[in-house]
Amino acid sequence: MLIERIVVGEFETNCYLVAAAEGEEAVVVDPGACGPEILKLIEQKRLKVKKIINTHGHCDHIGANREIKEQTGAQILIHRSDCSLLTDPVGNLSYFLSSPVISPPADILLEEGDVIEITGLSFKVLSTPGHSPGGISLLVPGGVVFTGDTLFQRSIGRADFPGASPEVLVESIRKKLLTLSEETMVYPGHGEITTIGEERRENPFLKEGQLSP
Question: 20 to 30 A Cα–Cα from 175, which one of 73, 91, 139, 210?
Fold first, then answer.
């Protein structure tokens, strides 16, 4: 499996290019900004981008949707509970920035348990709300999960935005992510790559007593 990470924008969002190998069909996860840089890496790896998957609808994860879609023809996928944020600068938290973000609307609305397929790879949708109502994680067979802004290395997502809930966030992590195998590699929306086992043991926000909302 090919996973290329590029850190984009003022919020240092992790954008991922994911494919079975160079030259194959690919998914772009969370193109938050820096469209030209993302497109350059796509070209370097000779990838055929078929899907843009937003783990949620905040501006720092959708900011380059339009440019990537226009240049590649890829479909935009997001959970139905966050789909309105794509075209709403207030909802996606970009209204007060210098350049409000308006993405093209979603082509496909996702739900818990959906499976997204490209050549040689599949992504299972795990509904992990809390940071936003439609937050998702993406589980790839072979021990990889993309967690967006739900779970980070030694931290968890913020739950003080409109539509967020700390209780729901913790429940999502407890039921959907910590139940994965210890060896599962965690590719978060910000910060460094980690594992489920490391976060069970070391994450200060997930200590015993904090996992029951």
Answer: 91
